[in-house]
Amino acid sequence: PLLAHDDLVGALLVGDLSPARRFSEMDVKRLMLFAEQVAHILSSRQRLDQAQRRQAELELLHKISTALRQSRTTEEIFSLLVKEVLAGLQTPAGSLWLYDPANDELVRVVAQDFHVRLPAQLKPHMGVAGRVFTTGQPYVAHEFVSDPYAHDSIRAQMPAGWGGAGVPLRVGDETVGVLLVTTQLPRELRPDGLEPRTLASGR
Fold it and tell me: 92: Cβ–Cβ under 8 A, 6 or more apart, which residues?
């Protein structure tokens, strides 16, 4: 076993093609020592990756916060929010949808790249955006054109080879919209990197 600080991080398997070979107790001790070093290296790398992801998140949140304070209109706020999120994730395509209770629809208020071809309105129970809105939970799609939750009107406008994710937008405890982000395969967004964010109501 590869153990680092009592955490199991993997396993090391060693074998020999020769049936006559027998591993001695010294061989096992050496392997255990090697496995311990490998485990600590893996654990350190995981902590470094987590720290780098957290740093990237903090930098992105700072940029968004700064941009929002400089915005004068609601349209500017939403546009800058989408722009900075897409820049932080290093992908060109995304859109922001807000719920219109008067018409019971999700309305596309901001779109970049091919998201401008998506329908302007969707019922809140339709498609990936509708699923994210109604459940209040992030959703990751491997590829939108083949995703079981993708609505036909969305699927027809999404290019093949693009997946992504939807994240609920909240004010307090209320879900008020959805942010859709798409990335080109083989890159895929990870669920653990898609925590729901709360939109600040004040400026």
Answer: 86, 112, 113
